[in-house]
């Protein structure tokens, strides 16, 4: 059993811990936190060994036992997942390197934090045996998952995407905007396009970012100029066969993130998490252009708290050399129940047959 | 003085009435309303002759004098502006035709309501002497204004625009969404692309629509593939020279609709109205493509309650044959103060000289 330490037990860290615990081939060595807040109570209630990321005194004062300092956790781990706030991961890097513990960073870090920026669907093999891996951000993960099969099947001349981002997560009560729509950043491209290129170095992509008064999910309006002229149905079948893409049929009556998350809560998903990209089937549109090219359009919703969680699990397997990509993805999906539990949006078995393991 | 009747005294009608009154060559014959609510009080306080669009009894009961029925207003008007809710204009059409009063409809009506769909910058001449004209919607007006100079100067191969629309106006308290981002419509293109084609029949354009929990303005993320490779500065200068486009310099520190509207309120604009498209200067980006083409990007904010108001005034002049396009636009702009009163975003006089009258 691979021992995985998780440094940071906030939005991502607590989800990664639960996801690691659900896997057959890894275990949670412990989690590290700075403050004895409600999430520390959750760590204790879940039975995770809790390590202090800074001082132990506040935990002792709050009556919460700690197993030691974060340094001890890193030393006792085969792999560490750094789920600290953006920029803190870079500061933790010296510790991981000193203790020679392979580290997984999150997409809030600069790409230079690790030699590989990772998406399980797009470039798993590059992370195998690396010393450090950066799992790209929620938006870049969402883009990478949908771009990979389209690039492989049709070739992509150019991507133009508008990312309408949630202002903050539900728990980030200090964030905005309220009643406004902010170009963010105002300059073009937003940082997402270069970030996608850390996964697809040759891709031509421009992104425009905005922030709106919503907390549940990001919503992407995507245009792709393809080097082929498939039908909208071809594209729908291709995407439906992908394990981490949910193509939402019209009959479900899901008009936005609210109903999507209501659906996953009803289905019993932990925290109502949506690990998959949610693509509206009706939005899949293909418009032939000249020279055998076509403009393809789609809307997708991305759950910013959850979509990188299975990617972190796969990054752990890649860095530890536990499995190849398709095998890891299959194991992660099965352990978490990705692609299951949501009636009516199972992978379409009438779609052109593809090797199940390579679908993800 | 041209006598203008205004049927409907809601968001658009009350603004059109005030704008007509501010013109040197037209007068408000009266306004018609269905209910004696707060906007009826405003009509009375402004001194407009108030006509009942339906029953007179509720007005009498509320102690508000009415000058008669809407039929009398239409008969007494040289031109009528129909500013009733979407779909009601079509039902009023028979009355205007019976009384042979030329009519201006709003963009909520189907394009078939009138022989001409109108934008002052793009196709003023088509409306001259027509029996009926439809002023296109706020979003289509905003798109038409920015597309016209770019099409004329560079040629446009294709437009791809994502329209992040406010959920409702500030007074529309029953609308949503709350805390969600809705693809709306989910299908592509949204109705905006065909609507733009009522003004630019030859244009290749796709639009994706969304709705968000904001009330102040729409925000457009626009990509245009141009048939030329100008610099971003060329495009900025071209757009800055347009009277109804405000290119917002970075130094103003305006990050969204909230600060934009705060600025116009501080400047003393009536109701804080923003009649112009507001284009973020930093967002203007040009990326050369192959074959002498270029991808141009920009963000713009559109005040849905206000941008069609000067267009209605110009449509009145066109339909009545009072002036040619550049003359009407200049008169409207001067009477309302368009392009004035906002320090630092005056038209850039260092830009390539163009005939002032033809700038709009």
Ordered list of secondary-structure elements with their pairings:
The structure is a homodimer of 360-residue chains.
Chain A: E1 2-7, H1 11-21, E2 26-33, H2 38-46, E3 50-52, H3 57-61, E4 68-69, H4 70-75, E5 79-82, H5 88-98, E6 103-105, E7 116-118, H6 120-127, E8 132-135, H7 138-153, E9 156-166, E10 182-183, H8 192-197, E11 205-212, E12 218-226, H9 232-240, E13 245-248, H10 257-266, E14 277-280, E15 285-288, E16 294-302, H11 308-320, H12 325-336
Parallel strand pairs in A: 1-2, 1-5, 2-3, 3-4, 5-6, 6-8, 7-8, 9-11, 13-14
Antiparallel strand pairs in A: 9-12, 10-11, 12-16, 14-16, 15-16
Description:
The structure is a homodimer of 360-residue chains. Chain A is α/β, with parallel strands linked by helices and 360 residues long. Chain A has 2 domains: 2-136 and 309-335, Rossmann fold (3-Layer(aba) Sandwich), CATH 3.40.50.720; 139-307, Dihydrodipicolinate Reductase, domain 2 (2-Layer Sandwich). Helix content of chain A is 32%, strand content 23%. Chain A has 12 helices and 16 strands. Chain A has helices spanning 11-21, 38-46, 57-61, 70-75, 88-98, 120-127, 138-153, 192-197, 232-240, 257-266, 308-320, 325-336, and strands spanning 2-7, 26-33, 50-52, 68-69, 79-82, 103-105, 116-118, 132-135, 156-166, 182-183, 205-212, 218-226, 245-248, 277-280, 285-288, 294-302. In chain A, the strands form 2 sheets. The first copy, chain A, has an 8-stranded parallel β-sheet, sandwiched between helices. In chain A, strands 9, 10, 11, 12, 13, 14, 15 and 16 form an 8-stranded mixed β-sheet that branches. In chain A, helix 1 packs across helix 11, helix 6 (120-127) packs parallel to helix 11 (308-320) and helix 11 (308-320) packs across helix 12. The radius of gyration of chain A is 20 Å and the shape is globular. The first copy, chain A, starts with a strand and ends in a 24-residue tail after the last helix. Mean pLDDT of chain A is 94; it is low at 347-360. Chains A and B meet through strand 9, strand 10, strand 11, strand 12 and strand 16 of A and strand 9, strand 10, strand 11, strand 12 and strand 16 of B.
